[in-house]
Amino acid sequence: MGLIIAIVVVVIVVLAVGAAVATIGKRKRDSKQLQTRFGPEYDRALDQHGDKKEAEGHLREREERHEGLDIRPLAPEQQQHFAGEWRNVQARFVDAPQEAVRESDHLVREVMRQRGYPVDDFDQRADDISVEHPHMVEHYRSAGAIAERNERGEASTEDLRQATVHYRALFEDLLDTQVTQRRGQEQGQGHEQGHAADGGHGEHSSGQPANDAGAGGRRGEEVR
Fold this sequence. Notes:
By secondary structure, the protein is mainly alpha-helical. It is built from 10 helices and no strands.
């Protein structure tokens, strides 16, 4: 009888240890999955909450909320429309940087709305987009902070330029397309177009070298 009891106790202990090991293993896997999915947002949550369990619980709440949203991609015509709107806004940055930042913020929110994100609260918007865009959400927070200073008249032109760069990073990610040509592409295409237009001589028909310093200088002031 005593031997049977001893065997039962050993079995119970082994099962308990196995269950504990399995639970620890599952927690580690879950933590790893959250780290992989949220990237820098995982570290931010740890810093913000100061407790791993609480931080991971908050990130899981984001996932659950996100699963309940009807997030959808934009149609090609919507992508083209918003990309064109973005280029128009950025072209106005030279003459009206404060207004351009406001319009950039509005465009980002409108793209989010069209994709199915609620847009009422800034912090909630940031949490929602962090699920699928964890490497871009900090751009959004940085842009939002500068936008608030802009409304108080405390943002410099360089601050506003940085805000636009931050907005563009998220905007392109949400749009899933590049909205601006990079400098190298612009220079290469400009050279090819100019070469074709003047027959390969780099001059106007009058024989004088082409001069676009005014337009080029102005383009150089726009946000890159």
